[in-house]
Amino acid sequence: MATMESLIGLVNRIQRACTVLGDYGGGDSSFSSLWEALPSVAVVGGQSSGKSSVLESIVGRDFLPRGSGIVTRRPLVLQLHKTEDGTQEYAEFLHLPKRRFSDFAMVRKEIQDETDRLTGKNKQISPVPIHLSIYSPNVVNLTLVDLPGLTKVAVEGQPESIVQDIEAMVRTYVEKPNCIILAISPANQDIATSDAIKLAREVDPTGDRTFGVLTKLDLMDKGTNALDVLEGRSYRLQQPWVGIVNRSQADINKNVDMIVARRKEREYFATSPDYGHLASQMGSEYLAKLLSKHLESVIRARIPSITSMINKTIDELESEMDHLGRPIAVDAGAQLYTILELCRAFDRIFKEHLDGGRPGGDRVYGVFDNQLPAALRKLPFDRHLSVQNVKRVVSEADGYQPHLIAPEQGYRRLIEGALSFFRGPAEASVDAVHFVLKELVRKSIGETQELKRFPTLQAEIAGAANEALERFRDDGKKTVVRLVDMESSYLTVEFFRRLPQEVEKAGNPPGNQGGNPAGNQGGNPASPSIDRYTEGHFRRIASNVSSYITMVSETLKNTIPKAVVYCQVREAKHSLLNHFYTLIGRKEAKQLAQLLDEDPALMERRQQCAKRLELYKAARDEIDSVSWAR
Hints:
By secondary structure, this protein is α/β, with parallel strands linked by helices.
């Protein structure tokens, strides 16, 4: 069967570890707080109710700041660790982890200084707790949270909202179902006006979690006593009431030792005619043991749920560690292998985008299906093939000697001029696909979870991929421009073979269609000479050129996408990082290590995650090792 010390000591150790790792008061919200799952004791009372004296009596040391008005202005999380008899007492603060305080007057000063550091020297309060651990053979294993005293009015230097602010702060602790409430009330005041009891009744209406403590029993008016309260007749709680006799102000002024004060307290109750029959159930020593025993029973009841929560959190932490990645090996070969694996992971995601496994690749098709046809439709062929421009081009092509039958040179110049317009849409298609590929590189790097650890390698891969895409774009532009130039360099022969026949048809008079008169083997040049320079003639030329350009446009609309895919998309799929792989293989071990230089924030996150994982596993092992009676 587990002892009280082993169970409560276990909880104290876990709470201490949680505190050090930041799980309490600002830890990672993605994990359930182990601290909140563990029981603790919150000390609640009005100002000057004797809270500080009760805590000092439990600890057996004079270590808390004193004064008038609001003294406790930040929560004090006090963890008591019982040590072996004869060992020296000392205290440690979380914010000063490497410093031990054996002088408890210095502990008091540090509490005051740390409070002032955050709140200033005025009467402001702060919800940020101070964490203090005390190791002593004279204490029981216990965790207590000393909270600012409840008040009814704001004093000078305090905001008007101070009353509500303090109550809201206290509620954040006492509303938790695992919190044991130590409600401190002075015996020389009516219990019906007790701020602590009023608040405890609201958050714990059944009284299961509330322990009532009456202080200042020795300061009651003569002839009166607090038996009605202590025996549960005035206000009944499920837990017993405990009376406390604190040190008098004279004792405090004389620096009376707390151990001596405890002895005087025992003598007071033992010799009191009013409380003698309750002497064994009164006093700070009894209160500490009572709280410890109750805490033990609560822990026993909570162990199954705590174990379940720990196991769930371990699973979450291990998943997080897998997500963050394990530490990198220092061996150069292992580092090179890691870099290549990361590159392959990125390359795999990039290909998934292109092939449709992830979104984005369809935008390449959108360039060919929408942008290219739209750009071709907007080309200024109407202006280029207007009657005035056709007449000007044909005339300039003829020079001093007009054409005889079909204006071949004029046709060629018109077609070459029209074909030059195709260069713009062709190059624009290359640039549009290049932009899509660059965006897919950026997205793929962001979606490669393993790469997030290494911002330097991320930048190197992005740079290498973009350099490769630039080379592919240059090849793509050269290829599509060649396609346009090829159309310009050799016109389709059938087109020119058709033209003289059409001109001849147009020139022959009725009755002489389809042939030339005898002796006129040149194709009847005299008859159509009048029609050759009319507007209708130039319109026919424009129509013929337009038909040819339409044919070429349909051809380029099919061949440009083929060239772009072959030069850019295909190369990106098959050889995006080939040059980078060559460079990586030549790097020295130091250069490889620089590429695997992790983001410091990520390294810190992994370290914290590893520490939490170690904490939770140790907690699980400790709980498993502690057996108790069922």
